[in-house]
Structures are given as structure tokens and as C-alpha cells.
Give the backbone structure.
Amino acid sequence: MKAVIFAAGKSTRTYPLTLTRPKPLLPIANRPILEHQLEALAGIVDEVVLVVGYRADMIRERFGDSYNGLTLSYVEQAEQRGTGHALLQCASLLQEPFLAMNGDDLYASEDLRKLSAVKQGALAKEIDNPQQFGVYTVDSEGFALQIIEKPTEPVSNLVNIGVYKFDPSVFQLLESVELSPRGEIEITSAIQTLAEAGGFRVLTIDGYWVPIGYAWDLLDANAFLLERFEASDIHGAVSPLADLSGNISIGEGSVIKAGSVIEGPVSIGRNSNIGPNCWIRPATSIGDGCKVGQGVEVKNSIIMDGAAVPHLSYVGDSVIGVGANLGCGTITANFRHDGKNHKSMIRGELVDTGRRKLGAIVGDDVHTGINTSIYPGRKLWPGTSTIPGEIVHSDVEK
């Protein structure tokens, strides 16, 4: 069996991180989203068709023609016109029933295997607030009756999570469906036709679904995967004067210096330099070739490859991009005085993040001056900088 992964979109909701990479390459627990997806598919399918578009060369370079026993092939979606349009680009490669899934969420292997056994269907999850998702209504046997996008009235708590099993007849449906209000060809339009004909099964997941819609969702996904660590895996050099507890992964060539306190779950990549006298708190991932130095505290954060937090800084509930350098005394504030949820400016609108704690989203190659203070939830675009003593009140864009 084959699977299709939709990995073509630009993902403006995850700016500034996706200004320099496609969303499926964003790291969680020090591995790209797409790598986690391919691992979930291993043993269920033997080939994966990747629909690529935005910065496709980066995905091809990272994964090549195979991964962990899976054959990888690529289809270009030059113009992003919806998920149905993306699937249509693969029609010549899919002559038998296949799986199809979004390229930016995490799914459990056991649920993908369960879906692979039905003739046609989809995975779904019951949630408390379904208004921002497509919602299924089903009959007593679990077959779809309707799929309704972002319903204004509560009709069901069973939401579409973007994973499907189709046979090739779906391509004829997609060629004839009406365009969405955005002028796109949507998979959900074909599902509605299949539901009306009967026989499209909706399976409630037993495992997990971790959606990643915004940059701050990476923090939840990172914490979720790190909590699944079952034991420590240490390959670097650890000073006897360092204090490590909990499940911790440390890659080859990394050095943990005296006075460092690391509380797992924590993942540290290869050739990183940690300490002396720093505090790495739970749910933190630090990539390859990073520096976390004297007097630094890092908590519930993602620090990407080659980034440096050399001394006397605080990084909390934040994402720090590749090659960024935080000057001495840089502080990422992460809590509002009134205790309310943080809001973030996305495409000109303030979006409630749903988080009471949120630090900074820092793009690649950002440099902050000494004693920079960053307000909660602020974003710094790739290559930008701050001056010594600067207070970052709003997003710093190029």
C-alpha cells in the first residue's frame, strides 16, 4: 500500500519559522515533523508519495529517495489550490487503495494501521470545542452522513483530523466537485459525496493526534514526544559535577559541563556545549551544535541547530531558530501580569494562543543585543537584531 503526505503549503501561520523552511521540516524532539510521520507509517505502507511545493528542494535534500525502508517519491504542486488539488497531482501514481494525510500533524501508528484495514474512511477525534474544524456526523454503525466545515451550530464533537483511506475512484469525484469559497478543490467535498453514497467509515482514534497549526503548537508537540521517552540515552561526555535527572537523550560529541542541572525529559543533539552552571528544565529540546552557557535557564523550549544562548539569559516557552544568538542577559518574558492567555498577531489579526505561558518565537540567524527583554509571545523575523538594552514590545519584522 502507498500513502500520500501533503507537504506543499507555505504555512504563514507558523511564521517566522517557515520563512526559511517548509513546515514539515520544523523540528520536534530534535527531528522534523515529517520524520515522525514516516516512522508512524513504517510497516503499514511500503511507499510514500510526498506532495511538495514551497521550498521542495529542502525536503528532497533531507529525505532523498528512501527512509527507514520506505520508498519515497515526489510530486510537485506548483500552485496550492487545496488538498483535493494536491491529491489530484498524484493520480497517475495511485492505482490501488491508499492512505492520505496532512503533512503537519502527528498521528499514532496504531490508528493509521486501523484505518488501512477499511475499504474507504477517515480518522476522527472527539473534542470539546470543534468549531474550528470540519465535523463529521455518523450513523449508528460509524459511517459518515455529513462533513461540515467549521459549523456555527453544534452538530457533533467528532472532528476531521486530516487522515483518509481512499480507492482510486476518488479522483473522478475530485475532478467534478464544486470549488470551495476560497476557489480550491477540497478533499472534504469528495468525502461529502462518498458519505451520501454510503460506505465511508469514520474511525475514532485510540491513540493520539497532535495538531500543529501555529508556531506555539510546536511546544505542545515537543513536550508530548519527550514525555514518551522511556529511558535515558546518553552518548556525550557528562561531567561528574553535573546533575542529571529524569529521561535525557544526549547525542554524540555533546559536552555537559560542571554545575549543569538537567531535568528530563530533555533532548540534546550532537556536538552541543552545555554549561557550566546552567539549568535545563523539562520539555526542552536542544539541537545539534548548540551552545547553552553560564547562568542560562531554559524551560519548555525548542532551540534549533547551531543556536547559542551563551550566558546569563532566560529562555522559557520559546522557539529559537537555527543559528540564532541571544546576547548576554536576553530575557524572554512568558507570563502576563493579569494571567490571561497570550495573543499573537497572525496575518494582521490577534489570535488567542490558548496559552497562559508563551515566550518568544525567534527566527533563524536572529541576534539580540545584551540585556534585550522580549515581551511574551513576540516574534522576531529571520536575520533581524536588537540593540543592547532593547525592549521588544511588538513583532520584529523585516
Remarks:
- The mean pLDDT is 96.
